[in-house]
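re: ur question from earlier - yeah i can do the single chain one, its not a big deal. heres the input i used so u can compare w yours
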Amino acid sequence: MGDYNVNYHTPQARRWESSHFHDVGAHTMLPAMENDEVFRANLIALMKERGLKAATLSKKANLNARAVKDIEEGRSGSPRLVTLQALADALEVDLGELLGLGPRVKLRRDLAEFLAQYDEDDQGRFLAALSAIPPPRP
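and the output i got, formated as C-alpha cells:
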C-alpha cells in the first residue's frame, strides 16, 4: 500500500480524537466524519495516489460505468457490501482499511486456529518463547 492518508473512525485507531470530533453538549462527542464520508475520502485518496479515474476503477472492479463517479460525487452514500468489496479488490487494499476500520494484522489462519485453543496465559507463554527467536535478517 502507498503513502495515502487513511482516515479511521474506530476508537482504537483515534490518536487524534480531539481534533476530529466536535462537542455537541452534555459530554457527547460525535465523529467529524460519518462512515460513508470516511470511505469516500479513502477511496478518493487511493484513486489520486494511483492516478485512477472513476471510469477506469469502475471497469477494473466490474461495476457500472458510473458507480465510482456516483460515490466520488456523494450521490451514492451507502454502497452495497459487494460494491465495497469489489472496489477494495480492484484497488488491492483491505476492505476494513478502505472503510476506515484500521489495518488488520496479517496472521496465518492455521497459526490463529492453533493459538485460539489456548487461554491468554498460555498464549503469553508462547509469545515469550517466540520473542527469544531473533527476527529474520533483511
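The longest strand covers residues 21-23. not sure if urs matches, ping me
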